[in-house]
Amino acid sequence: MAKVEVLCCGQVPFRNNPKTMMTQPSKIPHVLSVAGSDSGAGAGIQADLKACASRHVYCSTVITAVTAQNTVGVQGVHILHEHFVAQQLNSVLSDMHVDVVKTGMLPSLGIVKVLCQNLRKFPVKALVVDPVMISTSGDVLAGSSVLAGFREELLPMADIVTPNLKEASVLLGDVPLKSVSDMRAAAKLIHDLGPRNVLVKGGDLPNSLDAIDVFFNGEEFYELCSSRVNTRNTHGTGCTLASCIAAELAKGSSMLSAVKTAKQFIKAALDYSKDLVIGNGAQGPFDHFLALKNVNQSAYRQNRFNPDTLLLYAVTDSTMNRKWGRSIAEAVKAAVEGGATIVQLREKDIETRDFLDVAKVCLKICRSHRVPLLINDRIDVTLACDADGVHIGQSDMPASLARTLLGPEKIIGVSCKTPEQAEQAWVDGADYIGCGGVYPTNTKANRTIGLDGLKDVCQVSKLPVVAIGGIGLSNARAIMEIGVPNLKGVAVVSALFDRECVLTETKNLLAVIS
Ligand SMILES: Cc1ncc(COP(=O)(O)OP(=O)(O)O)c(N)n1
Ligand SMILES: Cc1nc(C(=O)O)sc1CCOP(=O)(O)O
Ligand SMILES: [Mg+2]
Fold it and tell me: How much distance in Å is there from the Cα of 334 to the middle of ligand 1?
């Protein structure tokens, strides 16, 4: 008899009756991986199990082949008979509630066919196809007959297919793919084969500092960039990425969101494992379980930036402060003492060295009030003084590049006037958007978008929004009440700094928006 040490909710379990000893039934998202076994456990079924476990998703497995492989290469492949693959599929799908099926190595046409039959018989929420054809060591894992099965049966059923450059080339009849524009063309042609979404992975693109993947959903292209991690431990990245996408879809994410999260997870895992030494070959495995080791990952960055800090966003202007006879540091001190919840140093006419000195002083003031300090436009100053982040506009450095340069920890804000710009800011890894100009202002020559433009952007933005432009005591409350939950605050320049007493103006403005 099982020993029960903790009783939940005061319930006394009935002895020897396992049903009454259970707590509330709970459901865990479930991915079924249909793939080959990798004895070295870097890729294949083993990588899929680790990726799903690391993303807190249950993973069942249907094994299509057993490979003898290690960090040197693939020494042997034993393909399972399609009838036995069908039996495994039936065992899992007829009994368990599977949310998402993810496929890896499908080494025979018969296996592709039984898989498609079972997917028709047991429909799932999504099908993620990683078209494994060539191993990272260059060994061929699926012959040309399988290709026909992919093209004719499997891809038309797929919600997403994730080829690398070699696989995309093979799927399209060996077309050469050498640039991001080739990848876009390939994504479109593969989309024509039937999958709802395509992710062409550019990790092997020559002469590229970044890992650029092209995502195409049939309407729009997205270039997803992350800085390349310098490591030998990349074996299994394709399997892990596809499993991670499947895991996020099983949890209920949208497709683009799942892809983005998966890419961040891979980057964090590669960074974390870059010096790991397993095996003597050219390509080692990486460690999926960074989450267990309390590692600060970009995929788990939610504690780093609190969107509520956008409530009263003070943006400095040296002309105004000079006019009223105060230094930038005095202005910032008054603003944070008055209740500003975040500060941006927007100093357009200052020498770099002076900017750096002022930023260091302001940083001390802001840190003592636990208020984040961002720098306008200047990534170099942000890094040099270790400010909390940067705010950039549409004509400044692209946000994806800013993220690469600043790393996962810094806050990045991007100015956006349109829903498309807001979507791109999110793809690029920004943390919030500044949306405006809402009303006309003398502070910056700018096109206004009005309250309706602000609402349009807020409604599509997946990032928190701060409104900017012509905002002050008379209209701030109305802006905060437009009724969109992701509008988190107002950013103001002249209403605080083109006034005699910054402290009083900040307190008054805070009172009307709180
Ligand atoms: C919070 C916030 N939103 C928008 C802007 C404007 O940034 P940008 O478009 O780069 O223009 P400049 O400020 O550089 O003139 C901002 N600074 N802050
Ligand atoms: C810096 C800035 N950016 C804007 C944008 O529309 O992106 S409007 C603006 C100036 C806002 O100043 P004030 O609060 O004095 O109107
Ligand atoms: Mg700018």
Answer: 22
